[in-house]
Design brief:
globular, GMP Synthetase, Chain A, domain 3, 33% strand
């Protein structure tokens, strides 16, 4: 198992050196002492959730030979008002275009959120995760 290393870069900027060899840059907004030069850590976490579940959905739909023409995942979150302001609710909206049977999409989403996506399953321990979807046929 490899390591992820996060290094301080001055101000409020950090860079994560991840296992795959890529860098992930993070910064705070100016009101928090940062330069607003990169996404916030929570934004990266939510984007990672979208990428994780999106990859699962594509993988399942590929196996069912019903790949969409496009897939976008909109993520809305609610946070607790007090520190540490944890994420309490996450709502995912899967927007698909193409000839994807509804039952295939639902199965792919549910498999991702319940079984395959480690980020969703980790967050489900502290946040309520819900979803909806919209299919635009071609």
């Amino acid at each position: 198992m490899g390591k992820t290393i996060v290094e301080y870069r001055g101000g409020m900027a950090f860079v994560g050196k991840v296992r795959s060899g890529h860098d992930v840059f993070m910064d705070a907004g100016e009101s928090s002492g940062g330069a607003d030069s990169a996404p916030r850590p929570v934004e990266i976490l939510l984007s990672s959730l979208g990428g994780c579940t999106g990859m699962d959905v594509i993988a399942v739909l590929r196996k069912k030979q019903t790949l969409p023409e496009s897939l976008a995942i909109e993520i809305d979150d609610e946070r607790a008002p007090d520190y540490p302001k944890v994420i309490t609710k996450i709502h995912l909206t899967y927007k698909v275009s193409g000839n994807v049977p509804e039952e295939n999409l639902v199965k792919a989403i549910e498999l991702s959120l319940a079984k395959y996506c480690p980020i969703a399953n980790t967050l489900a321990g502290v946040a309520q995760i819900s979803y909806e979807y919209a299919i635009t046929p071609s």
